[in-house]
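Appendix B. One record, verbatim.
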Amino acid sequence: MSKLKTLTNGIIKENPVLVLVLGTCPTLAITTSVVNGVGMGIATTFVLLGSNIFISLLKKVIPDKVRIPCYVTIIAGFVTVVSLLLEAYVPALYKSLGIYIPLIVVNCIILGRAEMFANKNSVVDSALDGIGMGIGFTFALLCMGTIREILGSGTFLGFQVLPSAMDPILIMKMAPGGFFTFGLIIAILNKVTHGRALKKRAAAGCAGCPAAAACESAGKGEC
């Protein structure tokens, strides 16, 4: 796999949210505004990049039987750094994201890339993969946040974009609106790619799951 393909793979072809359908919890929970979505995307990208590099560097040192706990420990270190930086320099965003910042530790996108990519590839490739997947995750959150903020609040980045006489669709700020927007974007992506996104998801199978190696069904090609 070329360096460019490694970098760009996670943006559209293997977008962790829209194609592999990973990390849906923060995707649905914090995309009521663009700022929250992009903030979570950048924070996750930082953790992805740092954890991928460290896990790739230590892949020959980490015992195979305890690799998942080791991955979680490394990821938790980077999440702590991100949490402290946000609290110190962007307190409003830190307060808005709330519990979803520490929950980055168990984000299946990060654990999945650690297990399926960083554990098997060079430091440079792992760094590129982390950046690409982070950009793809941020892109998905940006799309979700844009639709939900405009329709749910009538604003974009806090600025009024819809006429004040038009009532916002309040359900777009709630869970049903999140699920509707999520499904809509995935449907549009599949339409644009002529179903290739669905085929990519089927081909990936259990590959995105950090527990795939230990799962009985993974060996049988089931999910």
